[in-house]
Automatic annotation (TrEMBL):
Entry keyword set: Membrane, Transmembrane, Transmembrane helix
Name listed for the protein in its UniProt record: Uncharacterized protein
Parts of the chain that traverse the membrane: 15-36
C-alpha cells in the first residue's frame, strides 16, 4: 500500500545511472591495474 505513494524505482533514469556507474568502476579498476603493472620492477 505504501508503494503506491512512494515510487522507489525510476527505471527510465535508473538504468542509465547504473550503466554510467558500472563504466566508471570498470575504468577506475583498469587504471589501477595499469598503474600497478607499469611500476618499476626491483
Amino acid at each position: 500500500m505504501i508503494l503506491q505513494y512512494l515510487p522507489l524505482v525510476n527505471w527510465s533514469n535508473g538504468i542509465v545511472m547504473i550503466a554510467v556507474f558500472g563504466a566508471v568502476c570498470v575504468g577506475l579498476v583498469t587504471a589501477v591495474l595499469m598503474l600497478m603493472n607499469s611500476g618499476k620492477k626491483k
